[in-house]
Structure formats: structure tokens, C-alpha cells
Amino acid sequence: MAEHKAGSMDITVQEKTFAGFIRMVVWGAGISIGILIFMALVNA
What we know:
Distance between the termini: 67 Å
Structural class: mainly alpha
Largest sheet: none
Helix content: over 70%
Number of helices: 1
Radius of gyration: 20 Å
């Protein structure tokens, strides 16, 4: 079995995936808040 050395693995793909996930969550939250504000203004 090969020895594991901490910090030696290439994680650029995982970092890009995580950045994309965070971007998607931020956009989703912003759109949801925008829809809620629009609904509140229309319903008033």
C-alpha cells in the first residue's frame, strides 16, 4: 500500500466545483429574495 502524504493531492477540480456550488447558492438565494420582495410589493 502506498504511503499517504497530506497536502500532496491535486484538488483544483474540487476547488472549482466548490466555487461553482457556492456561486449557484448565492445566485439562488438572491433570486429567491428578489421574488419574495416582488411578491410583497405586488400583494400590498
